[in-house]
Amino acid sequence: MHAADDVAKQAKVDLVTAYDDAAGRTPVTIIPTELGGTTLKPGVYASESGDFKITGELTLDAECDPNAVFVFQMTSTLITEVDSEVTLIGDARYCRVFWQVGSSATLGVGSHFVGHIFALTSIEAHTNATIQGQLLARNGSVTLDSNTITNGLCESEQPEEQEKPLEPEKDKPEEEIKKIPNTGISSSILYSATLITSLGGLYVLRRKK
User: How far apart are CA 93 and CA 72, in angstroms?
Assistant: First the structure.
């Protein structure tokens, strides 16, 4: 556990970097506040009201690109209703979903949430809400109540390599340089999310009795 040591301090710096990066992503598509009942493709999303709400099911479709990124920007709150759900299809991955929340996030009873929440203030997960990702608060607490949170390292998926015709041995280069696929988002978010993964207990976790 890292409460106030150098590792914790660096993780907090990385969280600020990730938060600011997510908040600055462009171009932004403006959509309605209510995300429930919709299917979204990869991109950066915000609402005119500055907040998002999920009632029912939100579907994120990566369109067969496992490196596709979804970013949701909020100047205000994120609220998921009772038994709401975020569903991933088309090779979408939870580790490529980011929620930048300008104030606080609230996850409803029995809801299933997907992605990394970067909240400026606080996060509260109500009874039996499940999270595939991370709950990270900059200035306040993360309150849990009989919740299940799963997370892990996220690596870029390499595209399948096509077979190349055989070349004479003398014409073969000594080394091949492989390009890293573009994830559509700067590495600071992905790095910070991965780094903070190992720092459970860094933030105040208040469990309801």
Answer: 15
CA 96 – CA 10 distance, rounded (Å): 22
Q: Residue 97 forms beta bridges with which residues?
A: 70
Per DSSP, the three-state class of 189 is helix
d(CA 22, CA 19): 5
Tens-digit pLDDT profile for residues 18-58: 999 999 999 999 999 999 999 999 999 999 999 999 999 99
Domain range enclosing 178: 6-155+164-207
The Cα 132–Cα 107 span in angstroms is: 12
Is 1 domain-assigned?
no
Residue 88 within a domain:
yes
**Collapsed DSSP state (helix, strand, coil) of residue 149:** strand
**Number of domains forming the structure of the chain:** 1
Give the DSSP letter of residue 66.
Answer: T
Is pTM beyond 0.85? Reply is: no
- What's the length of the chain? 209
Report the relative pairing of strands 85-89 and 78-80 from DSSP bridges. Answer: unpaired
Which tokens is 72 given?
Answer: 């949701």
Orientation of helix 6-23 relative to helix 187-197, angle to 10°: 140
Cβ–Cβ < 8 Å for 105, 76: no
